[in-house]
Amino acid sequence: MEGYILDWFNLFFRWFHLITGAAWIGTSFYFNWLNHNIRSPETPKDGIKGELFAVHGGAFYQVLKYDGAPKVLPKTLHWFKWEAYFTWITGICLLTVVYYWDTKIYLLQSTVGGLQPWQAIAISVGFITASWLVYDLMCRSPLHKQPMFLAILGLILLTIASFALTRIYQPRAAFMHVGVIIGTIMAANVFFVIIPNQRIMVDAMIAGQPPDISKGAAGAMRSLHNNYLTLPVLFIMLSNHYPTVFGHHLNWAILAGLSVISMGVRHYFNLKHNGEHKVWILPVAAVAMVALALVSKPRPAEPLATSRPIGAHGARVTFQQIQPILQVRCLSCHAAKPSFPGFLAPPQGIMLERYEQARAVHAKIKSSTVDSQYMPLGNLTKITPEERALLGAWIQQGMPQ
Ligand code: HEC
Predict the structure, then answer these.
(1) Which of 81, 187, 243, 254 is a Cys-bridge partner for 88, taking CB atoms 3.0 to 4.6 Å apart?
(2) Is the peptide bond before 142 cis (omega within 30 degrees of 0)?
């Protein structure tokens, strides 16, 4: 029953998270685009800095950008903040349901001995909170006068955090924590800096006083940070699907590489919006992506070397030898009726009860169990290196029956 309820909470929060996240990123992309495409009105208008016409969904729109504030504030002023807050709230709910509820399944590595569930959760909360505090302090310090230095330092610190997290948690959980850290920084930027500063400026304008420009500048810097962090965090949201990446022994370095590449792509668009066409950035990013894929390719020698004791004498590994391994190490989850507490259906529909079933997913078994070793989850069923090697040898030999 508990597993069933958790599954529905998981579904609900994930769906909600995706919807609000799309709304948040959508508005942020839209305003970014708007700011860069709005032009001075053809016929000058009093107090108006820019004007833009658009057609969408069969209707025409005219957007005006004020030079400062309008003389009279309209009754309804949209702030665009709930998208950010709800993305964060639903994200934390999802983190709780997936990773905190039963820390043994997705959070803890069985090899990092001795961590109690509450300790694992405390470390997680500590990492998330400390990351925001350090980032916020950096932004408020004189470092903010050196935006490039600040950005590089931030990226280095984030990579160190990501490295540390991959030592403590299962790789998927570690990646997701980096995502939560970035998401928290982005949402906290909106909550603690961007919106309050905007409010101070609006209040000043209503009172007919000149707005405090430094408030606007601080908000703009945080907005720009959020802008560059968007693409990496989107990748992390999807990263669960890519065991080749999160299961790699240098996963933290690949994550850093992908982040830098995606920020480069973001940079290209920001420059383009400002009228600078640095077209070379895109092919460089593409080449970097291919290079990253090539250098991080798992070396086929690794599983073979460990399987030498079995495969060296040319011994055939048949399904007869594989079946008991699957039975003991995998079937508690990957069966039509899983016996592992909390699992109501085989994860991803993958069942390993019969030869045909195992054969059908052999490539995934190789990537998840032989190469990256993220299966069995947290090695809950205590598979041995020899058994992994045997699975590798069986797949290598073309899965004899
Ligand atoms: C404790 C439960 C559990 C055990 C034991 C377990 N798995 Fe999994 N397995 C999962 C879950 C949960 C997922 C889905 C993960 C996800 O959504 O990314 C999964 C996913 C997979 C996938 C799909 C990975 C992909 O590339 O998407 C494969 C293949 C797999 N498991 C194989 C195995 C093998 C082989 C074993 C035994 C050696 C095993 N699992 C043991 C829970 C388990």
Answers:
(1) 187
(2) no
